[in-house]
Write a structure and sequence with these properties.
- This protein has 8 helices and 5 strands; from the N terminus they run E-H-H-E-H-H-H-H-E-H-E-H-E.
- With 184 residues, the chain is α/β, with parallel strands linked by helices.
- It has a 5-stranded parallel beta sheet, with helices on both faces.
- The longest helix is centred in the middle third of the chain and has 13 residues, at 116-128.
């Protein structure tokens, strides 16, 4: 049996705009982000970026989500270096550690030893600090404590020159956005 999560969705966002996507669990918020990013193909319809249907998502997008995995054997140093080599990050190690609120001993520790909140902060930091036109944040405060939540709010200014799309149900995640849609 085919079940539609959404139909007839049409979005047009300009640089500097931010969009919150909310709705009950299972409504399709994460699925919509994955379609926008190109991880999932829509059953019908098309996604366009700058009027083009054929685009390399990795060149334009940055995404952070609780369901996306980082290589657990890698350290922050190795993850940051990889992002730098891919052209997605232009911060040296000290700048990134300071920005993401990690210390020098964390830089060498395998990610598998991090708490879920620390891992989520790392994913979100990589996403926010990335060289990308469009930032997709799926439930960015999942597993974060009050310190992580404060860090997130303090760094939202970094998204002012990008298109930012946030999916979630925690108002702390999206109350700063200037547009809002709800999926039922």
């Amino acid at each position: 049996m085919r079940q539609w999560l959404f139909r007839g969705v049409s979005l047009h966002l300009e640089t500097g705009e931010s969009l919150a996507i909310t709705g009950v669990n299972g409504a399709g918020k994460s699925t919509l982000l994955q379609i926008i990013f190109g991880l999932i193909q829509p059953s019908e319809g098309i996604i366009r970026l700058n009027g083009k249907e054929d685009y390399d998502a990795h060149l334009h997008f940055s995404i952070a989500s609780p369901y996306m995995e980082l290589p657990s054997e890698f350290s922050i140093r190795e993850i940051r270096s990889l992002h730098e080599k891919l052209g997605k990050l232009k911060m040296n190690e000290n700048e990134f550690l300071t920005f993401a609120r990690f210390d020098a001993k964390d830089a060498q520790k395998p990610i598998k030893l991090f708490s879920s909140g620390m891992t989520q902060r790392l994913k979100t930091a990589l996403c926010i600090a990335s060289v990308a036109d469009i930032v997709l944040l799926d439930e960015p405060l999942t597993n974060m404590d009050a310190i992580g939540e404060a860090w997130y709010k303090e760094n939202l200014y970094r998204l002012e020159d990008k298109i930012a799309i946030v999916a979630g149900n925690n108002p702390q995640e999206y109350q700063w956005t200037n547009r809002h849609i709800s999926i039922q």
